[in-house]
Design brief:
There is one protein chain. The protein has about 160 residues and is mainly α. The protein folds into 2 domains: about 1-45; about 50-155, Cytochrome c-like domain (Cytochrome Bc1 Complex, Chain D, domain 2), CATH 1.10.760. The chain contains 7 helices and 2 strands, in the order αβααααααβ. It has a two-stranded parallel ribbon. Helix 2 crosses helix 6. The longest helix is centred in the N-terminal third of the chain and has 45 residues, at about 1-45. The N and C termini lie far apart (about 80 Å).
Length: about 160
């Protein structure tokens, strides 16, 4: 008989332990969901768009100088593109990049351009070129330069006007 009393206690302990595990797991999951939602909401509130003056005029000027040297052979001086390279100004460009982050565009420039020397541009140079593209697409300059750090670039969204 002693055996059955011990078995009942063991079963009761297992059920209690399982219940505690389920409660703790549920609490942790709920906490993660709340934190994830708050983080996403904060990111949306903290996100800027290219219409917010996120680069400086001097930075765009540097970007233009580099663009003229490195990019204009394929994309043309007026950014109109060619048979081998897309336009970097106007509706087609904005349609292609709408709702993407500036980081996405900087990374595209940095990792795929120029075609004859892929990967030769560092992140700062690619960022400067992108600020020139923003200026050419009539997005306003601000007082501060667009920093080339990933976090900052990811928080700036390209939005058509």
């Amino acid at each position: 008989m002693m055996m059955s009393f011990e078995n009942k206690n063991v079963r009761k302990t297992r059920r209690t332990g399982s219940a505690i595990t389920v409660i703790l797991s549920t609490t942790v999951m709920a906490g993660l969901l709340v934190a994830s939602h708050q983080s996403a909401h904060a990111a949306q509130e903290g996100a800027k768009t290219v219409s917010d003056g996120v680069y400086s005029a001097d930075q765009a000027k540097r970007g233009q100088a580099t663009y003229n040297q490195v990019c204009s052979n394929c994309h043309q001086m007026d950014l109109s593109g060619s048979d081998q390279a897309p336009s970097l100004a106007g509706g087609d460009f904005l349609d292609r990049w709408d709702a993407q982050s500036v980081f996405d565009l900087v990374e595209r420039v940095r990792t795929t351009m120029p075609a004859d020397s892929v990967g030769s541009l560092n992140t700062q140079t690619a960022t400067d070129i992108v600020t020139y593209l923003l200026q050419a697409n009539n997005f306003p300059a601000g007082q501060e330069e667009l920093k080339s750090d990933r976090g900052g670039l990811r928080n700036v969204m390209i939005k058509k006007k």
